[in-house]
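Possible regression after last week's pipeline update?

I re-ran a chain I had predicted before the update to compare outputs. Posting the input and the new output here so someone can diff against the archived version. Not blocking, just want to make sure nothing changed silently.
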Amino acid sequence: MLVTATTVKIGGTCDQRMSGMGAMHNYDVRVETLLLEVFRTVARHGSITAAAHHLQFTQSSVSRQIAALEAQFGVRVFDRLPRGVALTEQGRILLPHAEAILDRLAAARRDLDDLHRLGSGRLRVGAFPTAVAALVPRAMASFRAAHPDVALSLIEGLTPELLERLASGDADVVVVSSSPTGPTDTVHVDLHHLLDEQLLVAVPQEHRLARRRMVRLADLADDAFIVGSANAEDTLLRASLPSGFQPRIDIVAAEWIGKLGCVAAGLGVALVPALAVRGTPADIVLLRLHPEDESVRRIFAATSAGRARPPAVTRFLAHLDDAARGFTQSR
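New output (post-update):
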């Protein structure tokens, strides 16, 4: 039997009835759990010899451990009999407390082992909308298949909001994109690069450029651009627009379904992140941008810097890497 030592603090008042030790004893004792384990084992077997055999200690070692426990508490816990030992009244009072301490520590070790083996715990994932279209769900699905006992949850939001949730402790890992208009505040964040995402141009099937494989943004100078919002999609536009190019914006559609529906109806064109391609309707054509106009968004998994990384987060990063590789290869 493997027994490890841990120090625990026990405080209180003990009614002592041993000769010469006084009537009442106030104590503040720090006891190694090894002593408590030896005490419990001797009490269960009723014999120092049998306890020594069970613990794989020598008989003299067990006797020393019991003597040390009695010295720390200032009480005698066993009466030595011709055949074995018997609990004193003080020992009888101490035993359930020793068992409770040892049982709680054993439960703590089991819980920590489960957490390390991912037999329990939780994982709160955050991601920006287009990452939720395919990348993050694939990673979550493979993670859940490998670790079904970990509770998974998903938070969708824009990168600044996700980083705030990470900083406040409301998320364990968030998938974010780099900001083309300026550096994202990542002072307190560890960034794990997943992939670089291209932006494509969505045009209706009957568009004059629909048969091309690649276009220049200058070719779209007369087209209206359909955007999502002044804060989000305006940033996405500025990521790709060359200097001096001013797109004409007629329609704002917040959701991708509405935005692509407007493109399909011939109301304009839109920039579409490669991660969102899976949800593109059949009556829309996606065109690549010329290398001189091409924009790339960098996609990262962000975790809190300076904090211990839970085992679930470390494993999930590996699943995100696999999903990112699959996305890059399919693209």
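Follow-up from reviewer: compared with the archived run. The two ends are 56 Å apart (CA to CA). Marking as no regression found.
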